[in-house]
Amino acid sequence: MDQVLHPHVLPFFQAHGNWVFQHDNARPHTARATQDLLHRSGIQVMPWPALSPDMNPIEPFWDLLQTQLNRVVPRPTTVADLDRAVRQAWTNIPRQASNTLVRSMHRRCQAVIDANGGHTRY
Fold it and tell me: Entry's InterPro entries (predicted)?
């Protein structure tokens, strides 16, 4: 909460108004303290069933980032080294890659519908 919600999420929602927050039901997101803070702050959370297909295009983007990080030699040994490596890896991913992922959302959603909510290739 001190590293993400207070310094980033809450100010974003305060500055941008009526948005809906989506998360993936990871334990830190569903912890009572987190849920209470979001509720007290008036942040609407999108219902997201446990074990639902993960259709968020950020997930394959993380894979692209990991691929870039795996190429870093020498491996980062400090937090500062890791920070620099992540920032450089992020900038090395072509914008076209993220655009392609976002444009794939229609196909992803259709695949979930076709699979009646079950497993898809995504």
Answer: RNaseH_sf (IPR036397), Tc1-like_DDE_dom (IPR038717)
